[in-house]
Each structure stands twice: as structure tokens, then as C-alpha cells.
Amino acid sequence: MTPARTDPLTIADAAAVLRDGGLCAFATETVYGLGADATRSDAVLKIYETKGRPRFNPLICHCADMEMAERYGIFSERARSIAAAFWPGPLTLVVPLRRGAGLSDLVTAGLDTVGLRVPAHPMARELIAALGRPVAAPSANPSGKLSPTTADHVRAGFGGKVPVLDGGPCQSGLESTIIAVDGETITQLRAGALARDDIEAALGHGIAIAEPNAAIKAPGMLKSHYAPNAAVRLNVSTPALNEAFLAFGAPPAHSGPTLNLSETADLREAARNLFCYLARLDASGAQSIAVAPIPHVGLGEAINDRLERASAPRS
Ligand code: TXA
Ligand code: MG
User: Fold this and answer.
1) Which terminus of the chain faces fewer neighbouring Cβ atoms within 10 Å, N or C?
2) In whole angstroms, what is the distance from residue 18 CA to residue 16 CA?
3) pLDDT tens profile 278-308
4) Are residues 33 and 177 in the same domain?
5) What's the structural domain count of the chain?
């Protein structure tokens, strides 16, 4: 797909769209974000409307650097050292909100915490720096659908109605890992592009994992999410004849549409391909997508999380 007529071609143009209170999608190293100036409620409201997102589900606030992040969140020593280890990068830290700092209440959905992230993608950081304010951005897909890892996915998802700053295909392909830091207590709220093992190795100890659907702390962790149109069937070694097949490692012979997340069983490659391949198999018109078993280690934790939500009963 070629750029839409309204797509900004430079970072300065994209920053101008945000400064005017508009929405602009942009690349991050995880997935594309649907950005708005996080200090303007009129702009942030457009994110919820455009995505069809429930208002109780707070947004991640993207910052250019640690200094900007500390303006909006209160960092304990613990939180600061985790940020120093992993920012810029695919980690969101949920910390107490600094009240009166100017963040729109719609970003936090009225919670007394805020999810902050300094992305690693250079275009994302330059965009935020050019705006000079934090950028609220959920994944740039209609609520409940597959997350976008290319500019074309964003254009397809919103029918070309949202301008996109094209930064190429996303390197990780999975959303950021979210951890809450409450004093000394660290809890993983969402598995993501930074494997929990890597965080635990840096900390020198294990971290707790939030119960699925644990009340308010991760209101975005809705059971059915990332849903293609086709049904999704997990842990399948032998797909049915009429199914599309999402393979991992050496695949069985299958005559239907087949894509392999990683022939060499590399979880990083599989993560990068996950949403894109689900979208392509969905476009094949198959009624059901069978997915090969994915080992539950390292990034496999996040891949399996997304697959479980993709296969959950739709409400
Ligand atoms: O990689 C990513 O994280 C991407 C890119 C664009 O940065 N963003 C993303 O946003 O995945 P979204 O809205 O699709 O997911 C954000 C998640 C939601 O599950 C939301 O509930 C949670 O973050 N969240 C945000 N603020 C929170 C808070 N204060 N407490 C608990 N969960 C929070
Ligand atoms: Mg999302």
C-alpha cells in the first residue's frame, strides 16, 4: 500500500499533527502505536473513540527519556534502577502517578498509577522529543483485534482514516512487557517483548505474575483480544484438512495455507512474525487457524499469552 494522502512524511509533520490535538500512528520497536498528546483530554478522547476502546482501560504514556518520565510518575529507587537497565526499550513501568503534573485523566482512566515507557525506536523517541510532551499510545488497531506491526496493518485496520508515520516493520512484533513497581514489590502485569527471565536476571530474583484478570491493576488484560476473524485452535500438531496452519519449527505436511513462525524454532523470530502471520492466514479466508505448540520459555510466555487471548471465546 502506498502512503495515504494524509500521512505525515517527516517527524516534524507528525509532531505538528499531535500538537494540533490530532491522532497520528507511529512505529515503535514493539508494535505501531496510535498516538495523541497525553496532556490533552480532547486529543486522548479521540484514541478511545477511534479504537472503540473501553474507557476503563488506561493507556501507556510514552516519554522521550527518563527525565520526562519522572515528570509524570513517581519513581522509587527500585523503579529507577529497572528503568536504567531496560529503557529505552520494550518495558512499561506502572508507578504511582504524579498528580497535578498535567497528564490527562483519560490516560490513566482515573487510576492513581501511570504506565510509562521510553521506546527504543529512534523515530518514536524523536517524535516525542519534537512534541516536547508525552504521547499516549495504545496499539494502533481497533480494540480487540490483532496488533499492527507495519504501517499497512494500521491503514487496513482503520480504513486509511488515521495518518501513519511509517517507520518500517516493528522489530519485536509483540507489545511491551508491563510490570508494576510498588515500593519493593514487582509484579508482571503483562508478558511481552522483554522476556521475564531477562528482568529477573537483572534484578537477581524472581518476580510475581499478576493473576489473569486481577481486578483493576491490568484492566486491559481482557480475555478475548488479538482476535482474527477465523477461529484459533492451539497446540495442534496435525491440522485438519480445511484449516490454515501456523507452524513453529519443522512443520507436518499440510495442504492448506501454512506459514511458519520460525523454521529454526527461534522464539524471537516467532514473536516478530506472530501478528503479521495471523493476519495473513486470516486473509486466506480459512474458518479456523490451527497453531503449533510453542514452548513456554523466554518469549514463548508472551507468544502463548497472545495466542490464548486470540483463541478465547469472543463476547
Ligand atoms: O508495546 C506496547 O506496549 C504498545 C506500544 C504502542 O507502546 N502499546 C500497547 O498499548 O500495547 P495497549 O493500550 O494496547 O496496552 C496497554 C496496556 C493495557 O493492558 C492497559 O490496561 C495497561 O497497559 N495499563 C496502562 N496503564 C496502566 C496502569 N496504570 N495500571 C495497570 N495497567 C495499565
Ligand atoms: Mg493493544
Assistant:
1) C
2) 5
3) 999 999 999 999 999 999 999 999 999 999 9
4) yes
5) 2
